[in-house]
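Hello again,

I reread your note about wanting to compare the complex against the isolated chains. To keep things tidy I'm splitting this into two emails, and this first one only covers the full assembly. Below are the input lines as submitted, including protein chains and any nucleic acid or small-molecule components. They are followed by the predicted structure of everything together. The single-chain runs will come separately.
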Amino acid sequence: MSQKNGSVIDVFVAPKTFAFEKYTEKVLQTPDGAIQLRYPDATPQEIVALAEALKSKRATYLNQLSVREIVRTIGLAAEKWTDPHYHYRQVAEKYLPLMTGYDATQTTLELKQYMRLFREKELLRFVNSELANTGMAMDEFQPNLSGGFSKFYGPDLLFQIFSGNVPGVQIWTLIMGLLVKSAIIGKTSFAEPLMPVLFVKTLADVDPRLADVLAILPWSSQEVTLTKTAIQHAETVIVSGSEQTVTAVRDFVPATKQLIRYGYKIGVALVGRIALTADYYRQTAEKLVSDLGVYDQQACLAPQSVYIERGGQLSPGEFASVMATALDNYQHQYRQATLQPAEKLAINKLRQNALSEMINNQTTQMFSSREDLTWTVVYHDTPDFQASPLNRTVHVYAVDRLADVPNYIAPFKPYLQTAGLAVAPQALMTLARQLGEVGITRLCALGEMNHVSAAWHHDGGFNLLDLLRVVDIEANLDQYVERFDEDVE
Amino acid sequence: MLLDHKVALVTGASRGIGAAIAKGLAQQGAIVIVNYLKNHEKANAIVADITASGGQAVAIPCDVRSDAAIQAMITEVLNNFGAIDILVNNAFAPFVFDPKHRRLFGDTTWADFQAQIDGSLKASHYLTQALLPAFKRQQYGRVINITTNLTQNPVIPYHDYIAAKSAVLGWTRSAAVELGAYGIRVNAIAPGLTYPTDASRTTHRDVREAIIAQTPTGRLTKPADIAGAAVFLASALADNITGQCLFVDGGLTMN
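Full-complex prediction:
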């Protein structure tokens, strides 16, 4: 991490041999004083030159490596992050909370767990979940079932538009790109421009030539020409972010180019009566609260509506009260990030709506932090679905049977993603089938909603396969060329 | 003030420790329900005292040994005040604290035990249970049970009384464990010999002097000392204290 004048941080990284003409700075006010973020004031011509440089480095190096070698390098880089004294980890732990406003302890804990997803053994699992034999078909033509051979090719250049809602989230797609042997231009958000840069610097420590196929830099989404230029020179575009960001980028990508979108998603949690027994209910509430608390629901993985089954030892209303206490306690341990005015407005509006609902319907209850907006639970006796303004704000619905929940969320199919479950083992498969039918793509244990597994299918798609194109050598060609073997009689 | 906008119910508050607690809570801004069994005049006098000093209080009679009477009282209070935030279980069944003429172990009947258990444990339980739905909805509740330091060192072995108060202490702890999840705190105060009160009048000078001689602070406990502890436990100062028993006896009991 090059830091100049104490508080100037470089939030970009480019191949060693590539220099931008001009650099600029953005001042970020933090509780610890101002931080200056330094980054290139890139021109469209520079983006073109960068794209060409990256492609050429990819052709001469990354594309020559086997997937196994790439996995080993990334694994070694991730391994460095498991050391609490590792320089870049310390930089991340210091600056990410300042940049994002997230609680420092929580950020450290989450990063620790997250970076371990990219260790060698996890990556092997990740690759093998989609491509057999550690992706050997990306290295060489492999015999296929129709008698010929097939090889998988990744894009020569990936243009990635990263979101900034959760620290480090960008690393996932960055690694996906490397595994399919793509050079990458990554456009970061000013909300969190640091983690991908630090990770590329770690890669450079392990293998400088591999890091040389990557360039990460922020620019404003208003700089449409830069975005369009990057899209034009990339083979594939991955965009992560809000509905607005994703839609805007979609309009720039020609139909002939592949676009992968990770947009706005909604999570729900389902709590069965079996998890509301005297010995489990507190644990259940605490797990749910950690799903709500980690990164203040900003990750698309977090729950926005929660369904509580009637008939447990605690009524859903009592459980909502226990949840509320647990949320209050969570705030003591991991404080909520500083809210933006629009976020405050959204929570206040939700609270006002809840109060007017309470006038008309005595069964509706609101539990909320008294002095501030750190947490809000609105309990409804009649099931429905509502998105949440996030930031530890949640709707809790009582349901007679969890099997009914798919009906309430079905209308939101395009947006559904994760369901966190606390249900009886006998109920799991049936419920999973029904939830899958209405659009849920990931089912996980309550308490783990923000922690994806190494082999998950992001938004129901394939992480690697979706980036690949397949080249087939048909059986007839294989047989045909045999004719020209001069030694055969 | 420490207890602004809080509504407190103090049982057995027409005299002695209960009256002092009612006044102490009112002084800190709480609206106090002065519960009493039959001493209408004394209860009204406490209310008058509180209002004269600018506080707010009402007197409500109720035999807290009766579940039905408790329900009726709680419903009435909730209808009129909207909430109860603090419950002080101070009432107990009539008992004569007379070291000279106390009932010996061999003479203590099950009916004696039952009377004390009904007066303290049963009353505390039903009162808290009646308030539980409201406490859970408001995610807030402070329950303060008055026990005695005699549970630790039965200087005078009042068998039935001490057994019942020990039960209250166990109840305090187990209730605290479960109800913490709803933002409810359950604590106890164990006064030493509190003087002067009607109950301690028959504890004569010899016993009082013997206790004083053993007490680090060198004096007996006053009703206002108990009120101070109650205000503390009822206030936000004690937000993260539950399942505890605060001995207010000049240091006579040390745990």
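For quick reference: Residues 18 and 130 of chain B are 20 Å apart (CA to CA).

B.
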